[in-house]
Structure formats: C-alpha cells, structure tokens
Design a protein that fits this description.
Distance between the termini: 70 Å
Oligomer: single chain
Structural class: alpha+beta
Helix content: 40-55%
Shape: globular
Number of domains: 1
C-alpha cells in the first residue's frame, strides 16, 4: 500500500511539473500576445489588452512587479532577454489613469527596443495598427524622453507607441 501511494504521489508531481512547464510562456509567445494587444481594439480597449500581457511578462519574470511610475506612465526594464519584431526589447511602457493627478492621460502601451538594423518592421506595424514610432540615436535620448534613470545598453533605440490618441489620428 505504501509503495502504491508513493508511486501515485510521484506520478502526481510529474504531472503537475509537466502541466506547469507547459503553461510557461516563452519570449516568442509573449511577443505574439503583445503585438496582438497593441492593435486597435473596440472602444479604445487597447490599454486593457496590453495590461493583461504586461501582467504575463511579470508572471514569467521578464519584468519586475513594481514599475518606475512617472505621471500616468509605468516603465518596466526587462530582466530577461526578449525581442519585438526582431529588435531587443528593453522597456515596456503602459499609460493609464487610476487617480486623476492632472490632465492629459493618453491610455495605451508601448515598447522601447534597441535597434538591430533599421526600424522598418516597427514602422510597418505602426502604420497598419494606428501606432507611432519615435527613434533615438542614443540611450541617453531615451532616458531624457521618458524620465527613467535605468541604465540601458549603448545603441540606437526606437519606441513603438500605441495609445488612445494614436487611434484617432
């Protein structure tokens, strides 16, 4: 009897481990979900969709649970390598309002990438999905634009930003 319980317990742990690893998202899975979430959604729900994907990035350990909050925007520095449209993802950005602190919230989300070549894939996505692309020659320009103090690797950067105001342009 003890032997059969031990076998059952070992089998149960093996099944739980297999199920748990099957639920773990890869960076490619998260990229696909993020790109879907950045597309326009009815009733300007893009921000809600992006927020759900950002929670998955947190759950998988790609970003910390606590962001750097500046005004209405949260910035998350990646802690594990990931790519978006062939470029190195370095920051996730989410803008939303939970409490009114002034004016001008522009709900939505964006990604900041270190460019590997040109930004043409980002520009194509932006054009097709009512987003915008901003480019930066250095990591210092990214820090000045966002207000973050994160250290970033040297290189050229681009931001793919998909916010409510972009949908109405």
């Amino acid at each position: 009897m003890l032997r059969s319980n031990a076998f059952s317990l070992a089998t149960a742990f093996a099944m739980l481990f297999a199920a748990g690893t099957a639920l773990c998202a890869t960076s490619e899975d998260l990229e696909a979900e993020l790109l879907i979430a950045l597309r326009p959604a009815p009733s300007l729900k893009r921000q809600e969709n992006a927020g759900a994907v950002i929670r998955k990035y947190k759950a998988e350990g790609f970003i910390p649970f606590r962001p750097k909050r500046i005004d209405y925007r949260d910035y998350y520095r990646l802690t594990k390598p990931a790519k978006v449209l062939g470029h190195e993802l370095v920051l996730l950005e989410e803008e939303y309002m939970t409490k009114f602190i002034g004016c001008c919230v522009d709900e939505g989300a964006g990604v900041f990438v270190r460019l590997s070549g040109r930004a043409t894939t980002l520009e194509s996505f932006a054009k097709a999905n009512k987003c915008r692309v901003e480019t930066f020659d250095t990591e210092e320009e990214v820090r000045k634009s966002t207000g973050v103090t994160f250290s970033l690797p040297a290189g050229s950067y681009a931001a793919l930003l998909c916010h409510a105001r972009d949908e109405t342009k």
